[in-house]
Structure formats: structure tokens, C-alpha cells
Design goal:
elongated, 4-stranded mixed beta sheet, single chain, about 230 residues, Membrane protein, membrane, alpha+beta
Length: about 230
């Protein structure tokens, strides 16, 4: 019991610090967040308290109103914090990978499975919907990267569905803030063991590629070695 109490005590300052950092970040992008959240709480509590006086139960409705007001404030703050976070990540290289890491349980994310000299990137996620390729960068350039990755997946996983999306706000593109909901709406076609097999096969292919001998001789002019020593 003492250990559990000490662990909870140590965890609370961490949570409070995280909330404080989230608030500071949100306030930079949304200066009115404190007024809006406080306004929501006051209005919600006031409505419940007024109803309590009308039905002659001000204490009961006051307590209930306080709890509902706190919940409403948390929801509003969470949504505005999420909006501020996406606003700061928008247009940043690798932003989609950060979103994919938080899609939820059952998804395995591999960032930057393909990249070109212009820093257009393709990330890969594997889940019950199959394989999902998410591209960031210039729409005209990333299409060739996506096509190459789709051909690779067709060779390695011929029986697994492959979906691909381009992050952006243009026609046919998926906004950064909608990546998670887009993935979760995809039809579920793979069971847990099948997902494990897909991940194992992709991991094995990655190992084989990393163990391939590097051709001897001078490296072609302008070519760079990606991180991890893998050449694409």
C-alpha cells in the first residue's frame, strides 16, 4: 500500500506539469482559451443552479452542476488544445508520423519508409484495415513514392489490402487532424494473428534489405545515405 501511495504521489506532479505545459502551448495559439473555458464552466453551473432553485433543490442541482461544468470545461479545453497542437504541427515534416503514433491500440507505425531528396515522406501503418501508406509533401512528387511503395507491398503482401493517402488540404487529400478518424473508418479485414504475421513479414523484409551488400565503388554524385544505412 505504501509503495502504491508513493507511486501515485510521484505521478501527480507529472500530470499537473503536463497539464500546465499543455495550457501554455494552447494559450500561445489560442489566447482566449482561459476565458472561453471559464465561461463554459460558469454558464453550465449557473444553468443547473437556476434549475435547482426553480424545482426547490438548489443544493442537489448545484453539486450536479459543478460536476457537469467541470466535465464541460475539460472537454472544451481538450478540443481547443488538440486544435492548437494540430495547428502547430501543420506543415512540419514528420507531423503525420506523430499523429499515426497516437491512432490507438492495434496499429503499428513505421515512419519514413520512403523519402526523396525534397524531403517528401511516406509513412506506413499496419492494423485491422491492412496496410496504410500516408504521404507528406508535394502532391505531384509523393505520388511516385506512393506508387513505388504500393508495388513493394504487392510483392511482399499480395493478399493484404493497401490504402494510401496524401496529407494536405487540397482536393482528395486528408487534413492532418482527420488522419486518425480516416484510418479508424477503414473496413476491418484482418484479425489479430494476421496483423502479427504482416508485421513479422515486413520486419523480416526490412532485415533482409539492411543486410544486402552495398555495391563497391564511388557513390553516385548527389546521392545520400538515409538514416540507418539503408538505401532506397
Amino acid at each position: 500500500m505504501a509503495r502504491k501511495s508513493n507511486a501515485e504521489t510521484a505521478a501527480n506532479p507529472g500530470r499537473l506539469k503536463q497539464i500546465a505545459l499543455t495550457y501554455k502551448m494552447t494559450r500561445k495559439a489560442d489566447p482566449k482559451v482561459a476565458l472561453i473555458v471559464a465561461g463554459v464552466g460558469i454558464v453550465t453551473f449557473g444553468v443547473f443552479l437556476a434549475i435547482g432553485f426553480l424545482i426547490d433543490h438548489p443544493v442537489y442541482l448545484g453539486i450536479l452542476g459543478f460536476l457537469v461544468a467541470f466535465l464541460a470545461m475539460a472537454i472544451v479545453f481538450g478540443r481547443r488544445a488538440e486544435r492548437a497542437a494540430f495547428g502547430q504541427m501543420e506543415g512540419q515534416p514528420g507531423a503525420a508520423a506523430a499523429v499515426l503514433d497516437n491512432v490507438g491500440r492495434g496499429w503499428t507505425t513505421t515512419p519514413a519508409v520512403a523519402m526523396n531528396r525534397s524531403q517528401d515522406i511516406v509513412h506506413r501503418a499496419v492494423g485491422k484495415a491492412g496496410v496504410v501508406l500516408i504521404a507528406e509533401g508535394n502532391p505531384n512528387r509523393v505520388k511516385s513514392l506512393l506508387a513505388a511503395e504500393r508495388r513493394k507491398m504487392a510483392r511482399i503482401l499480395p493478399d493484404v489490402p493497401v490504402h494510401d493517402f496524401i496529407v494536405g488540404t487540397g482536393e482528395g487529400e486528408v487534413p492532418l487532424k482527420k488522419i486518425r478518424t480516416t484510418l479508424l473508418k477503414l473496413p476491418r479485414v484482418l484479425a489479430g494473428p494476421q496483423i502479427t504475421q504482416v508485421n513479422d513479414r515486413l520486419r523480416a523484409m526490412g532485415d533482409l534489405m539492411s543486410n544486402m551488400p552495398v555495391p563497391k565503388g564511388p557513390m553516385p554524385k548527389g546521392m545520400r545515405m538515409p538514416r540507418g544505412g539503408k538505401m532506397r
